[in-house]
Amino acid sequence: MAKAKVGIEVIVFQGREQKDMDGVLKECAEAGYSCVETGFIFDKYTPEQMKGLCKKYNLEYAAGHGGYDTIADEKKLKKTIKDIKDTGGSYIICSGVAQGKDMERYKESARVFNRAGKIARDEGLIFCYHNHAFEFEMIDGAKGIHILGEETDPEFVKFNIDVAWVQIGGESPSKFIERYSNHAGYYHFKDAFIKDKDKIIWTELGKGDIELEPAYKMALSKGAKYIIYEEDVAQIDVNQAIRESREFLRRQLGI
């Protein structure tokens, strides 16, 4: 069984990547990550600049990650797909859904994602939806995340499964991965101390309450290709945080 590639979402640097991508990528490489994910940062760095920086530090550019408004606007979507592709990326990732409070927002989003996913696939990229916890809230007897799972075509739409948010949302990460194995393939691994779903403290991998090891075993059994460490807000020095999390992935998960 092939090992997954180990990457890092540079959001952990809390904006420093907007000004010092060179230094950020240098620290990611030195910490032992093989690939990186960024936001849609092509107004700050051209694809050529990003590609050059990744090559400089022997890093794969895995994915660009941004908001629903970009995905829903076909012109913006196509430009972003080109930027990610020109940088060498394989995935375009969306966080967030259409506006609204009832289930129609998820149904509308599913339609948008199916369309975006086909456009991305035709250009050689994989479209993923990144979950948070809000999609797991019960509305009219159903959860938005399951509407997305049911109404998106797995040929065009995959899930960027964030295992921490799945658990914070009240479901088992490993069981969720098993349920949506046909949508799976790209993962965010992060950890947190969970007081309740509205009070969480992010921490380095292996320190908190998230069931990371069973999630990884299930992900690997379903053909996981990328495991991306993400930490929204580090509680310690960022360079130390990324190194500690990389060591957990190496020591506990064997990657």
Structural key phrases:
two-stranded antiparallel sheet, alpha/beta, single chain, 8-stranded parallel β-barrel, 255 residues, TIM Barrel, globular
Describe this structure in words.
- This protein has 255 residues and is α/β, with parallel strands linked by helices.
- The chain has one domain: TIM Barrel.
- Helices cover 41% and strands 22% of the residues.
- It has helices at 21-31, 47-56, 68-72, 74-87, 104-122, 144-151, 163-168, 173-179, 212-221, 238-251; strands at 5-9, 35-39, 60-67, 91-95, 126-130, 138-139, 142-143, 157-162, 186-189, 191-196, 199-203, 226-229.
- The strands form 3 sheets. It has an 8-stranded parallel beta barrel with strand order 1-2-3-4-5-8-9-12, surrounded by 5 helices. It has a two-stranded antiparallel ribbon with strand order 6-7. Strands 10-11 form a two-stranded antiparallel ribbon.
- Helix 5 links the parallel strand 4 (91-95) and strand 5 (126-130).
- Helix 2 (47-56) runs parallel beside helix 4, helix 5 crosses helix 6 (144-151) and helix 8 packs parallel to helix 9.
- It is globular, with a radius of gyration of 17 Å.
- It starts with a strand and ends with a helix.
- The model has no long low-confidence stretch (mean pLDDT 96).
